[in-house]
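Encode chain A's predicted structure.
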Amino acid sequence: MMTATQMKEYTYKPSGVKVDLLSTHDDGEYHMVRSQTTGKVFFAYKEQLTESVKEPEEGAKPVKQRRGRQIVRSEVPALNRINLNNATPQMLTQILKGVGLKTATEIYELKQSLPGERFTKLDQLRSIKRVDWDEVLADDSIYVE
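Encoded structure for chain A:
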């Protein structure tokens, strides 16, 4: 039996990637899932998914969501750096301090407006206001290639 602080976690067996379950189809025969690393959405058969129960990490902060539900978001480990050019707006909200979905969408739209639809340096983010970029960039969780 799961407690209120435990969370279900899914792994796509062929690649070992952690995925979020989006929907279930044909009486549970296959699922629509989203990769937690790339944001790619795809279908997987139930045999291709491994379900496990995850305990929240020490020091993880609960984050309030709509309808009073709470999820636990852990701090970003130093080795989990994200390429800004490959990040989805949802990933940016989880990685960058003080960045909500509206600002993350603005970052994504800025990227799309740049030549080659890519950031070449992190200083290009400074054109987006409402965020203390010195503080955000100091934790070294994002980079550009």
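The longest helix spans residues 101-113.
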